[in-house]
Specification:
The chain is mainly alpha-helical. The protein contains 13 helices and no strands.
């Protein structure tokens, strides 16, 4: 029986959203096989749509999460996001429990659940990003046991990177995604006073990248794309270091030319 094809209009929206909002991720997506790439675009649209609703405090966020949670329990899709998961699941092995855990992470954000310990932060990073790694492993396929755990580690590494990159933006909006115990131990997250904090957090993220990278060869599809995405995201940590560990406020940005060069090198290696 032939696999269903994605809806062309929805796919066009998904591709445009990925290329507009997630430029680093979009570079890596170009290295994916065409059919897989289409489903990855769609999944990005679903995950990003839920995340944006929650970040913006949209009154519809709760209902849209509930629709996806219902899909994970076997109900038919009743929102754009749940329809996407439903359709992609006809072509790929999507782990529904991981999608349900992602929704739990979104609900943590809606409730402004405090992050007191590094264990709390790990749990949060698993829910909002490690789960995405699990879903991507389901889409790309794995060759051996343990690869799913490494996919989770890579997703968590990327989320920790996002947190460090966006410290000032989050602080300006009254949000803190760093563990209170670590802030108390290593000092402020304010510009010019956070080198010890960032050194500690970068080391934690680097360890997760190492674990995640070990799982890339176990993927059936998309090894070059995942390796390129990981390398480009990890370079944000190196950019933070080059800029003096937050000596000045602002987001660390890796120049586009360097991102392309990194992606090209990783593609050649694999």
């Amino acid at each position: 029986m032939p696999r269903s094809r994605p809806d062309p209009e929805l796919l066009a929206e998904a591709r445009e959203t990925t290329e507009r909002v997630a430029r680093t991720f979009a570079i890596a997506c170009r290295l994916l096989p065409a059919g897989v790439r289409e489903d990855v675009y769609l999944l990005y649209l679903a995950f990003r749509g839920l995340d944006d609703l929650v970040d913006q405090g949209d009154p519809a966020a709760g209902a849209r999460l509930e629709a996806v949670e219902a899909w994970t329990r076997g109900a038919p899709g009743s929102s754009q996001e749940s329809h996407i998961f439903e359709q992609v699941a006809t072509r790929r092995a999507l782990p529904r429990e991981a999608v349900r855990d992602f929704c739990a992470g979104m609900r943590d954000d809606l409730a402004a659940r405090p992050i007191e310990t590094e264990a709390d932060l790990d749990r949060y990073c698993y829910r909002v990003a490690g789960t995405v790694g699990l879903v991507m492993a389901g889409v790309l396929g794995t060759r051996r046991a343990g690869a799913e755990r490494q996919a989770v580690a890579l997703g968590m590494a990327m989320q920790r990177t996002n947190i460090l990159r966006d410290i000032d933006e989050d602080l300006a909006e009254g949000r803190v995604y760093l563990a209170r115990e670590t802030l108390d131990r290593l000092g402020s997250a304010a510009p010019g006073a956070r080198e010890l904090l960032l050194r500690d957090q970068i080391a934690r993220a680097d360890a997760l990248y190492e674990e995640g990278a070990a799982g890339v060869p176990a993927l059936v599809h998309g090894r070059r794309a995942v390796a390129a995405a990981a390398a480009m995201y990890r370079e944000i940590l190196r950019q933070i270091e080059r800029e003096g560990y937050g000596r000045e406020p602002g987001r660390a940005v890796v120049p586009r030319r360097r991102r392309f060069a990194i992606a090209a090198r990783r593609a050649i290696v694999l």
